[in-house]
Write a structure and sequence with these properties.
five-stranded parallel beta sheet; 19 strands
Length: 624
């Protein structure tokens, strides 16, 4: 076979490789793919650098938040971190639903009953002194556990005041929080994340790009010995503060963490003073994930700099060439560090900041509704003093723990009264503890659809497509859905709260369009339906799809002036009911009518995206 003959199965009609390479579209695609791979490689390199810097001084770093789903990439990174940590340092894993007594310490029940006096036991945080705490499923950690960890990181001690025990135990540790959140709703508590120096995101990193560097534990030990002598020049401190200000990072903790990470990077590279590359690494790891704005370029100066004098005729070309690089060297240090941090800022930063206002409106509810406490069913959430009965369950261990510190006094009291007997443990009524339970209430998403003539003329068909996508998402989350349509003289309940996706789609498909816009009647119907959901212990979320222009009042009579007043009155009543809502503007071009209505209702305003209901679905998830 000659060198020019095609291989078996090769198509002769295809364009040659040279033509493919010369195609501008293919060349641009190849360039974009190469840039994407370079960005992934840079992200993985920074993740490995973060592991080395954290292993060098976990206590100074405070913590490291790793956002990644369980998989080989995260396992590989954790294995690399374990190899860098000294074997002698303790590594303790904190379970998701750990009790406060096990976390902080308290009364050792068995030893107390045996000795007849209160005997304290060490908690998990005290056992992790000088080491690392591994927090699994950190996005679902209990609020009390996050508060105890935050307090221990601030004070570097554990305070125990429970079960008749009062003790302070010094402890110094670093936290590795494994954030397995599948979406933007599930986040590590802010109070805990603010005490972490480094925030990593290992999602979207393929396994073939995860290659651990050749870093050994011996280099970490040498860097630890060098770290106390590392100094930070004044210009480096100014660069750190200027970068934080330019990226909108207002927390002073972040600037302090950046300084510590820069010192650790200098020690790891064998330097006794922080250099520019160390500050750049700290800016990428500490500031970039916390950025709240993208720096804008400086505005042009009103006066242009004076042109340099023309070169002498006898000056040779070599001297002129030597002057050009000197102008680039004068670039400010802050700009160099800021460029390094900007390169590590996520591409979807603006989108995340836009949706941040939606997420912050609902901290108490999640995929399955708001959290409710009770004593009958749900997940155990501690105990309280009370008597068993009427469905309340006795917490035997906590009851014994409450009675144990008083056994010596009660034994002396029985001996004084001459009723000692062979009682081992005396439990009194005040010692009874019953179990508290926490459960998620059911979320009901109420769709209030404007089916009037203006909506049908504009984008009712597109709104139906968006609602269908939201209905499917609610079905996956096992939420209930309800639907109200308003057109003509009033509003109509098309679908009562149900989990039936087929029934919901059938009601949506049969929704006609046309007639006036009784906006006030639609809002009133939503308030009434949401009130019924709340009375049954559910969590209602209202999604109102309208253009915000009413022309039918509450009595079903036309007239824009009175209809607008009635709509505003209904919106104020909606706000007084403190309901969560999202107003989706169905107009082809957003107008102030729907936005003004959303402000009066205390709801989130969102224009309906053109031919894209995915953004609307994400907004509803953020509100709900």
């Amino acid at each position: 076979m000659s060198a020019t003959a095609p291989a078996p199965g090769q198509m002769r009609s295809g364009p040659p490789a040279a033509d493919l390479a010369a195609d501008p579209a293919i060349a641009a695609q190849a360039e974009a793919e190469a840039e994407r791979r370079a960005q992934i490689a840079a992200r993985w390199d920074d993740a490995c650098l973060a592991a080395a810097l954290f292993a060098l001084d976990p206590v100074a770093a405070g913590g490291l938040n790793v956002r990644a789903l369980p998989g080989p990439v995260r396992d590989l990174w954790l294995e690399f971190l374990r190899e860098l940590l000294p074997p002698a340092e303790p590594l303790r894993r904190v379970p998701l639903h750990i009790a406060d007594g096990r976390l902080l310490g308290g009364l050792d029940l068995a030893a107390t009953l045996h000795a007849g006096r209160p005997v304290a036991e060490r908690g998990l945080l005290a056992e992790a002194d000088g080491g690392v705490v591994l927090l699994a499923m950190a996005e679902r950690v209990a609020r009390s556990t996050a508060a105890h960890l935050s307090a221990a990181l601030d004070t570097r001690e554990v305070l125990v005041e429970r079960d008749g025990i009062t003790a302070r135990t010094p402890t110094r540790f670093g936290v590795v929080a494994l954030d397995e959140g599948a979406n933007d709703e599930e986040q590590v508590p802010t109070t805990l994340k603010d005490r972490f120096a480094i925030l990593l995101d290992l999602n979207d990193i393929p396994y073939n790009a995860a290659v651990p560097p050749a870093e050994d534990a011996g280099g970490i030990q040498r860097a630890r010995r060098r770290l106390p002598g590392v100094t930070v020049p004044e210009d480096m401190l100014e660069a750190i503060c200027a970068t934080a200000l330019a990226l909108g990072v207002e927390s002073l903790r972040a600037s302090l963490f950046a300084q510590r990470i820069a010192c650790a990077a200098a020690a790891l590279d064998g330097r006794d003073a922080v250099a520019m590359e160390d500050v750049s690494a700290a800016a990428r790891l500490v500031f970039a994930p916390r950025a709240t704005r993208i720096p804008m370029p400086d505005p042009p100066e009103d006066q242009q700099p004076e042109e340099p004098p023309p070169p002498d005729e006898h000056q040779d070309d070599e001297q002129q060439d030597d002057q050009t690089p000197e102008q680039d060297i004068d670039k400010p240090l802050e700009d160099v560090v800021l460029e390094s941090a900007q390169a590590a800022i996520p591409d979807n930063l603006l989108a995340m900041l836009k949706m941040g206002a939606l997420r912050t409106r609902s901290h108490s509810s999640g995929k399955s509704g708001a959290s409710q406490s009770g004593s009958l069913r749900g997940r155990p959430a501690g105990t309280r003093r009370g008597e068993p009965g009427a469905g309340a369950r006795l917490a035997v261990i906590d009851t014994l723990r409450a009675a144990a510190p008083w056994q010596r006094l009660r034994r002396a009291e029985r001996e004084q009264q001459g009723t000692g007997g062979d009682v081992l443990v005396e439990v009194r009524q005040d010692d009874f503890r019953i179990t508290r339970y926490k459960q998620r209430s059911e979320t009901t998403t109420i769709f209030v659809v404007d089916a009037s003539g203006s909506a049908a003329l504009h984008r009712l068909a597109e709104a139906k497509g968006a609602v269908e996508l939201l209905l499917a998402d609610c079905y996956v989350r096992r939420d209930r859905v309800a639907m109200v349509a308003f057109r003509g003289p009033g509003a109509e309940l098309l679908l009562p709260p149900t989990r039936s996706l087929v029934r919901a789609k059938r009601s949506l498909a049969g929704l006609p369009g046309g007639g006036g816009t009784p906006l006030a009647a639609g809002i009133d119907a939503a308030v009434e339906l949401a009130d019924g959901v709340q009375r049954r212990g559910g969590t209602p979320v209202v999604v109102l799809l309208t253009d915000g222009r009413a022309n039918v009042n509450r009595e079903g009579i036309g007239g824009r002036a009175q209809a607008a007043e009635d709509a505003q009155a209904s919106a104020r009543a909606f706000r007084a009911a403190e309901l969560k809502a999202l107003v989706v503007d169905m107009s082809p071009r957003p107008r102030p009518d729907a936005e003004t209505l959303a402000q009066a209702m205390g709801a989130v305003y969102l224009p309906l995206p053109h031919a894209d209901a995915a953004a609307l679905s994400g907004a509803v998830q953020a509100v709900a």
